[in-house]
Amino acid sequence: MHSGSDSEIIERVSRPRNPPHLAPTAADAARAAARIYQRRLEAGDGRLERFPDTGDLFGVLGFVHQNQAQRPEDLAEDALGELTILRFLRAELERRLRLAILRARKGGVEWADLAEPIGVTSAQGAQQTLARLESVCVHEDARSEKAEIERRRAVDARARAASVVAEGVLRGLAAALKTHRAALPDSLAEDIDALLTEVGRRRFGDASLARARLLCDELDELSLVPQQLRAAMDELRTALPRR
Predict the structure, then answer these.
(1) Contact (Cβ atoms closer than 8 angstroms) between residue 93 and residue 118
(2) Which among 24, 41, 67, 109 has the fewest CB atoms less than 10 Å away?
(3) pLDDT at 139 over 50
């Protein structure tokens, strides 16, 4: 039996030969389940009333097994979807197995006593099981971290793009308001001044957009709106529609 701390054992027996293929995510599995349902729907499968919620992955697997597709192409696509779901479930099981082993070790359970519950024949086998699970988790965590970084970058990029659009649209609206200020009712003066002040201070956030939209709604009630101002209002609504 190897001696040393758990971390030393893991380091010794889990030096990767080749990185394992990364498992599908929960979102991947949900999409696979949804595709199975969609294909069955398009094929006119009359058994769909028994199809479970796509979040019930075990239920989806059971449905596919008990209600096989009629067309060969659907049968093949269902099988591919099943494999995606099964790989996700296997990875989830291994994540939970790793946590259970770690909790047992933290509670003082010896490696030899873990062998049978894990399903191996020796303490060394139990150590190697944890080492393998740790190796897989390292790659999964790395992918998750990378995906989160990419997601944040995408969110930031969309925010920057939206800010550029908002600045251009609000500047255009402000310019039109200045040009036609004398032709507009005095009742709108306060709202116009507030928007012009915000644009002048380079405030192009949600609050300024909300103010601009409300002002456009008020301008819509006028019997006549100058063409330049109307064009700026339309540009605002087209480029930055209400959500």
Answers:
(1) no
(2) 41
(3) yes
